[in-house]
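User: My collaborator sent over this chain with a note saying "see what the structure looks like." That's all I know about it. Can you take a look?
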Amino acid sequence: MPPCSLQFLRSCCFRSSPDLVIENARIWTDGRVGFAPFAAVRDGRFVYVGDYEPSLVGPNTEHLDAEGRVVLPGFIDSHIHMLNGGNNLSQLQLRDARDKEDFIRRVREWAGNLPEGRWILGGRWSTESWQHVEQPTRQWVDEASQGRPLFLSRMDGHSALVNSVALRMAGITKNTPDPPGGVVDRDPVTGEPTGILRETAMGLVSRLIPPPTLQDKVEALNRAMRAANAMGITTVCDIPGIADLPAYEALAERDDLTVRFLLYPTGGDWRRDAERLRAFRGKPGWIEPRGFKAYFDGSLGSRTAWMSAPFANNPPDNKDWSGLPMPIVTDGTFDRNARAAAEANLQVIVHAIGDEANRVLADKLLAAYGGIERLRAARARSEHAQHLAPDVIRAFAERGIIASLQPFHKADDGRYAEQYLGKERCAWSYAYRSLVNAGAVIAFGSDWPVVTQNVMLGLEAAVEGRILNGAIWFPEQSVTIAEALRAYTSYAAYAAFMEKEIGRIEVGYRADFVVLNASPFGLSPRWSEIQPDLVFVEGRKVFGRATR
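Assistant: Without extra context I'll predict from the sequence alone. Here is the result:
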């Protein structure tokens, strides 16, 4: 511990003792003082980190005996959908459906417990892990849904399955044209809709779903906070819709928040929406708007990621298909919006999965900010940045474009990515090591509820390259445990302009920290067994698991 830090604390102690001390710990300080055994917290911030200092403890100081456990900074989820995730916790779950029969059974059971006329919502389905991979159709669920309209998102949120009731309500027939930026899947023989809607085509049905009330949204955010805390997450870069902001304003009235929200809403006209962000009634340090999010393409699993070359497994009747750029890329909307965000000093984050989407993004950002120095200062981000190429990685590093990555997507998509892209292109997919070596900043998150928000499983994918079928996939793109932890803490803080406040256990920083039940360091950690025992936000316990 630098001497000035101890001197600072001792001068403060004449006024008051620490509120909390952490003792008998292995506190990860990211190389600053090795693993520290002791830390002190006062007024929600760390005031000492280092060797044991009994003189600092006052009569009213609370003691936390870590019993030799590892203590890490509170995790920052750089990309999450808290409102959707909270809603999803109360909806039909199909993510782990084993096969077609299990899928249909779950729909039937769920429908049987719903009032007549209520929409069947949820899903997060994925069939890629099934022994017999099949694309769901409306025929699967028409009988099982028992006359209720059904809208079930694929796990990535870029396509959905709807039933015949929902198609009729939306007026979708074989003659309905595909909307700009979307696809209505059709039977190759009859031309009738199969029930799969991709990208903007989902809106043809989703706009008919009754919107949740303000109270519904607040309750969903409460559920999401509890779920995040259980994973050790204390700060989130959250992506709501612009119309959802009143729910966050209502949440901001509370004094017992357990997660810090940095908001990046999606919207239409960012110049207009910037006025809404300026008028936002948040809670400084807890719920604050940071910028805007846009979409450049879709996803690999939905075959809508925008690639520079066709997918490797295209069907014969569509062999040149290389994904789906969003209309804002080509109609000038993004260029206008990015300039408006730059003028308003609002951060720009953009969903870009395919290599071409990321290549075009890097060029459009450079044009919008008028030069590399302004762009680097803006800390614009590519959200996902899953399938890259050497020239794109160089551009990110040179232009200061942050790669906001979700390691569990590698664990999930790695099972089938080579079928879509071929092995050569996959060598530049989930390119964590290449990005770090090039000098680009990486920040990790989850994309929950698309996939799990379990940080330890994200670390496993990033550090070992292990995918869900147990294989080690392109380990040359793995990073060290220290690099991965930084991507969930200090690098993630930098990616949200919070690097002087959170992401480190260091004097002056907010006292967000996690006490783990086992160490993620050393050889062969059992990642699935590591979990938070205790979670603190600004020195206040927000989660505790029954421990030994």
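A starting point for your reply to your collaborator: The domain at 84-206 is CATH 3.10.310.70 (Diaminopimelate Epimerase; Chain A, domain 1).
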